[in-house]
Amino acid sequence: MLNMAVSMLRHIESLPALPGTVNRVREIIYDKDGSATQVAEAISQDPAIAAKVLRVANSAAYGFSHKVDSVQLAVSLLGLVETYSIVVSSAVINVFDKSRTFDYMAFWLESQACARVARALSKFLELKNQTGVFSAGLLHDIGRVALLQIVPKHYERVSPALVGLALVKAEGDALGLTHTEAGYELALHWGLPAELAEC
Predict the structure, then answer these.
(1) pLDDT 10s digits, 114-165
(2) Treating both helix axes as pointing N-terminal to C-terminal, what angle do 179-189 and 142-150 enclose, rounded to 10 degrees?
(3) Which of 7, 32, 52, 155 has the most crowded Cβ, counting Cβ within 10 A?
(4) Which of 176, 68, 91 is nearest to 142 (CA)?
(5) Other CB atoms closer than 10 Å to residue 7's CB: what's the count?
(6) Residue 57 in contact with residue 77, Cβ under 8 Å?
(7) pTM across the whole model
């Protein structure tokens, strides 16, 4: 099992790269001279990602008091880390091949629900730094998609009905690698902020 796990970790390094828009946004965010205006301009070049950022900014999860109708305003209100995470999440599903047995819609809805609950809890607990909480919830299970990509036949043997520790144990037993470990490696490979990779 250990050899299989090591082999899978090596394959994670060969996962497809994210689309150019995502990479451009990441470059701007990590550039000390990068600005929200530059991020908005990069996002505006990709209609699908621009629509996603606007949709999230206008969602009840954020509760802004007025309609957000420009990418520039959305980026300013959401902040750079949150915006980057939304950009990444909007591109993630398209990067991977579809599986006959994996319910991507259910996966996406569960990720959205987790993100909303994480935001609500952080507000309720009055956490000082709430940046990235929504995104961490949104991307928390991305390792499941990564495992499906690198070892589809093996991962399809893990029951989709399992959750929590039962899922982690089944993955460890079947693959020698869990979705939490795969998600962490994938997040590092894609250059996500460390606080998101750890989640």
Answers:
(1) 878 888 898 899 887 766 777 788 778 888 877 887 788 888 888 888 889 9
(2) 90
(3) 155
(4) 91
(5) 13
(6) yes
(7) 0.63
